[in-house]
Amino acid sequence: MDRCPKASLSPREVSVLRALNRHTRRDIASDDRKLLLSMGLAVLNRETLELSHAGRTRLDLEERTNP
Known about the structure:
Elements (H helix, E strand, L loop, with lengths): L10 H12 L7 H9 L3 E4 L2 E4 L1 H13 L2
Antiparallel strand pairs: 1-2
Helix pairs in contact: 1-3
């Protein structure tokens, strides 16, 4: 399941990043959670999953290239 942080994201994975950006308390599927953590796109802050700096940067890039 581990992928390079620069690996392509599926539309679903981008959607999860967008959702996490809007609602940190949103339920995220276990597989998506593990993937985002392993890619460094999300971090755990206490028990809450949040976008990391790399995740925000990646989401900005995805928004610019695929609006």
